[in-house]
Design brief:
The complex is a heterodimer of chains A (468) and B (102). With 468 residues, chain A is α/β, with parallel strands linked by helices. Helices cover 36% and strands 13% of the residues of chain A. An eleven-stranded mixed sheet of chain A has the order 1-3-2-4-6-5-10-11-9-7-8, sandwiched between helices. Chain A is globular, with a radius of gyration of 21 Å. With 102 residues, chain B is mainly α. Chain B is built from three helices and two strands. The longest helix of chain B has 17 residues. The chains are: A alpha/beta (468), B mainly alpha (102). The interface between A and B is large, with 61 and 49 residues.
Chain lengths: 468, 102
């Protein structure tokens, strides 16, 4: 049997149900690997060994009693912006260094109710402000493929933990790119659901009109399993959708036959790292061999996305971070890092009297144009495919003093996030041994279509053989 | 779009509005980075937005999202106060807004 921490969630559930392994064994295997490699990778801010083993014991007992739950006994790593009751939650910022939340985020509650075990809280860009994990007040996370390189961000710790088999699955969140981009840089499957498909209650807010929790895992099946558990209406979050959650696994049909897949020419950037466009198009061509119809389409130039996202995100950040005053919890605002201060300042400006109309309100109009642009293209195609990121992982230190690094790195994800669309990163190939991903973007609440196409890709293409 | 460079006077006002404390180095650095960002976002003026409605969020037509008027337990006071650096008789303590002269 392979090492337990290298299993997928689906594989682990089969072995647990056959009682060939226990949750305690599985959880301990993940903890041991995490404890061994975290000093090097810095994927976790906090590991909860005792609580995790206790939860694993309870899961084993429930299974022994014949109780069936969708994630019973499955150990997961959680990005440190999800509130976990009584367990340290920092958002990788010293402002919340000792913060113990008094309640669970809805996502956490649902995972616990499904029997999952929480291993620990993963490192991230502080407050989710970034695409590298370098803005974390607890030091950057290292990419397991090459520890001189970044894992991406802001869910970099979750991405690295999955890639290094420190966990068999993880939870991240995306405002624009923060699930997809680190998944691309670390060779994982990362699913950003439709905005409103998964509750934001108890997720430390960055951009309230953008934040979307989602799974970061090893396979498409695993992504579907976790989405099934965490998706759905939540009365604590007024922006969650009342649309019924389909049974993603029951309806899983890995096929792209007859699917029209649009390749937006503007997203195959001229200044992308050499090899990125070629590898992604090669991967797309394989989908055509499986029966998909590839169609060139046109979307708004991503240069507008950078500007648009900068204004809307930083405006919402300045509002959301106003609550951190050290009165009700946490330290005061002198503990904010440089990146947080920079974003708060710009957001305060774009929302302030005399500038609100010219910046924020105008950006909300541009947002309408972006959404209309996608509506138009989804009249022609079923899914959109492009590189997730214009390059493979960058070196540690690359983001220093780059005022808009995050927004620049996520330029291929921003427009779809601003429009609330679901998307998945799939590992597509290797360039000089570093992973690069492709993304499939769907229309609102079309996660099933994405999952089906992604599953067909995964089952028919060995991405590690697609290399330059 | 509006002006791109912040005057020193506007910047100090902005720092106060943002409720932040910046040292001199931070002020210099952040000011130039904001100027850089404001220049970068000027590209949006290439798009025609006159007459286009705003899209505050992509969650669709949300209006009056209410829950049933049923009393449920909320966060107990001791738990709500558990993170506070200072509390007194069930209240959060904060810096005084008024001093003895007011």
């Amino acid at each position: 049997m392979k090492a337990l921490n290298t299993l997928t969630i689906t594989e682990a559930l089969k072995l647990l149900d056959k009682k060939e392994i226990s949750s305690v064994e599985l959880t301990d295997a993940c903890l041991l690997e995490s404890e061994k490699r975290n000093p090097e990778l810095n994927a976790y801010v906090t590991l909860f060994r005792d609580d995790a083993i206790d939860a694993a014991k309870r899961a084993d007992k429930l299974r022994h009693e014949g109780i069936e739950l969708p994630l019973l006994g499955i150990p997961l790593a959680i990005k440190d912006n999800f509130l976990t009751k009584g367990l340290r939650t920092t958002a990788s910022s010293k402002v919340l260094d000792k913060y113990l939340p008094p309640y669970d985020a809805t996502v956490i509650e649902r995972l616990k109710n499904a029997g999952a075990v929480i291993l620990g809280k993963t490192n991230m860009d502080a407050w989710a402000h970034g695409s590298s994990t370098e803005t974390s007040d607890y030091g950057p996370t290292k990419n397991p493929y090459d520890t001189t390189k970044l894992p991406g961000g802001s869910s970099g710790g979750s991405a690295a933990a999955v890639a290094a088999d420190l966990t068999i699955g993880a939870i991240g969140s995306e405002t624009a790119g923060s699930i997809r981009q680190p998944s691309s840089w670390c060779g994982n499957v990362g699913l950003k659901p439709t905005y409103g498909r998964v509750s934001r209650y108890g997720v430390i807010a960055m951009g309230s009109s953008l934040d979307s929790p989602g799974p970061m895992v090893k396979t498409v099946d695993d992504a579907a399993r976790i989405l099934q558990v965490i998706a759905g209406l939540d009365l604590h979050d007024a922006t969650t959708s009342p649309n019924a959650v389909p049974n993603y696994l029951e309806k899983l049909s890995p096929s792209v036959k007859g699917l029209r897949i649009g390749l937006p020419k503007e997203y195959f950037l001229q200044d992308a790292q050499p090899g990125v466009n070629e590898l992604v198009k090669k991967a797309a061509a394989k989908l055509a061999k499986l029966g998909a119809e590839l169609i060139e389409v046109s979307l708004l130039d991503p240069k507008y996305s950078i500007a648009e996202y900068t204004i809307i995100q930083r405006s919402e950040v300045s509002s959301n971070l106003a609550r951190y005053d050290g009165v009700r919890y946490g330290h005061d605002r002198t503990f904010f890092g440089a990146e947080a201060k920079r974003r708060i300042m710009l957001g305060t400006y774009t929302l302030s009297s005399g500038y609100y109309d010219a910046y924020y309100k105008n950006a909300l109009r541009v947002r309408t144009l972006m959404k209309r642009d996608f509506d138009r293209v989804f009249g022609q195609v079923d899914l959109i495919l492009s590189p997730t990121t214009p390059s493979t992982a960058m070196s540690i230190g690359a983001t220093q003093d780059a005022a808009m690094f995050g927004e620049m790195a996520d330029l291929l994800a921003e427009a779809s996030s601003l429009s609330g669309l679901p998307a998945i990163n799939l590992p597509a190939g290797l360039i000089k041994s570093m992973p690069i991903g492709l993304q499939l973007i769907g229309n609102h609440f079309e996660e099933q279509k994405i999952i089906n196409a992604a599953s067909a890709f995964e089952q028919n293409i060995n991405w590690k053989e697609n290399k330059l | 779009m509006a002006q791109t460079a912040l005057s020193d006077l506007n910047f100090k006002k902005l720092v106060k509005q943002a409720n932040l404390n910046l040292n001199a180095d931070e002020e210099t650095k952040i000011k130039s980075q904001i100027d850089e960002a404001l220049t970068a976002v000027q590209v949006l003026s290439e798009l025609k937005t006159s007459g286009v409605p705003t899209l505050d969020h992509p969650a669709g037509d949300l209006k009056n999202i209410l829950r049933d008027d049923i009393v449920t337990d909320s966060l107990p006071p001791d738990l709500a106060l558990s993170g506070a650096a200072r509390s007194h008789n069930g209240y959060f303590m904060t810096k005084a807004v008024f001093d003895e002269s007011t």
